[in-house]
Write a structure and sequence with these properties.
Structural class: alpha/beta
Radius of gyration: 19 Å
Number of helices: 13
Largest sheet: 8 strands, parallel, barrel
Distance between the termini: 6 Å
CATH class of one domain: Alpha Beta
CATH superfamily of one domain: Luciferase-like domain
Number of strands: 11
Strand order of the largest sheet: 1-2-3-4-7-8-9-11
Shape: globular
CATH topology of one domain: TIM Barrel
Strand content: 15-25%
């Protein structure tokens, strides 16, 4: 059975509204609710706690960027969220881009090393170990251990990332992998390296939850607010890999005007530079249209579908529509 998760972007509204959407998602049959911890966006920690407080079944995931937060803090927050949600917390650790951390002057560490060591330290703390450790990035003393017992020692850790090395790392050490699938037909590219990483580590690739992250805009009649979708695509487009965007017939030459506009902090112009052709990086239209695109990703091996983006003209109605017509279709498969 294919699982469905939802990523609630801060652009959808304030924390109270995201909390409302998280509750609607649970009632609509979504299995997980995720928040991205991006620099200068709404805090995933606050949003995750807000949704955990009003829900009962949906898992609560937050995707932490290891450049900005120390593993000791990541671990203790994860434990607190797990306690509040009664065992529903899921940790995402990694990044779909390193560019954002160059903004902060924090991009000197290798993302693969940083992620690998962070995961090791966090899992050690959760297991009750004394984490005296010296690696390429971290140098922890014998005083690095939890002063309390967590609810769970085996809290799931998912690895997002871009590039072959990060995909392989997610397969080697992650309980799940969170690759972008933009367009969804490109999911076979990261899956190849996720599976390779698992095999190299002596793991069964089938044991890893491969989550395809898509942008979506769904409506009953198929009408689409192209502008809303273009604004989301414009913000993230410069971080997408050639191997993925080329599946939609897009090249870095096409992306260049969007990147230039963003460098000037002109987000309106960046969205203007997103062509209608680039909309195919996302999934949009009627529920039937969306099912066809999602099904192509599932057939290639995605075990969970994670929807994000504008969702629809009215996010609340879009979530309910997905719960009524899209999620049940895959539940029958």
């Amino acid at each position: 059975m294919v699982k469905f998760g939802i990523r609630l972007l801060g652009t959808l509204g304030d924390t109270s509204y995201l909390q409302k959407l998280g509750l609607i998602a649970e009632k609509s049959g979504f299995n997980g609710c995720w928040f991205a911890h991006d620099p200068f966006q709404r805090s995933s920690w606050v949003s995750a706690v807000a949704v955990a407080a009003v829900t009962k079944k949906i898992t609560i995931g937050y995707n932490v960027k290891p450049y900005t937060i120390d593993p000791s803090e990541v671990a203790t927050f994860a434990i607190g969220l797990d306690e509040l949600s009664r065992g529903r917390a899921v940790l995402g650790l990694g990044s779909h881009t390193e560019t954002m951390f160059d903004w902060l002057g924090l991009g000197s560490a290798d993302l693969v090393d940083l992620t690998r060591e962070s995961v090791r330290l966090i899992r050690g703390l959760l297991s009750g170990d004394v984490m005296k450790f010296r690696g390429k990035v971290f140098d922890w003393s014998k005083e690095c251990y939890l002063r309390f017992r967590p609810l769970r020692s085996g809290l799931p850790v998912y690895i997002p990332g871009v590039g072959k090395k990060m995909f392989e790392l997610s397969g080697a050490i992650g309980d799940g992998s969170l690759p972008m699938a933009t367009p969804p037909e490109s999911i076979d590219y990261p899956l190849k390296y996720i599976r390779q990483g698992a095999k190299k580590a002596g793991r069964d690739p089938a044991s890893i939850d491969c989550v395809g992250l898509i942008w979506i805009y769904v409506s009953k009649d198929g009408s689409v607010n192209k502008r809303a979708l273009k604004e989301v695509i414009a913000y993230f487009l410069p971080y997408l890999e050639d191997e993925m965007i080329s599946r939609a017939g897009i090249s870095q030459k096409d992306v260049a005007p969007v990147r230039t506009a963003l460098s000037r902090r002109n987000y309106k112009e960046a969205a203007n530079r997103v062509s209608d052709k680039m909309l195919d990086l996302a999934v949009y239209g009627t529920p039937e249209d969306c099912i066809k695109r999602i099904e192509s990703m599932v057939k290639k091996g995605a075990t969970t579908v994670s929807v994000g983006g504008p969702l629809g003209k009215n996010p609340e109605e879009a979530i309910r529509l997905m719960g009524k017509e899209i999620i049940p279709y895959f539940g029958e498969r």
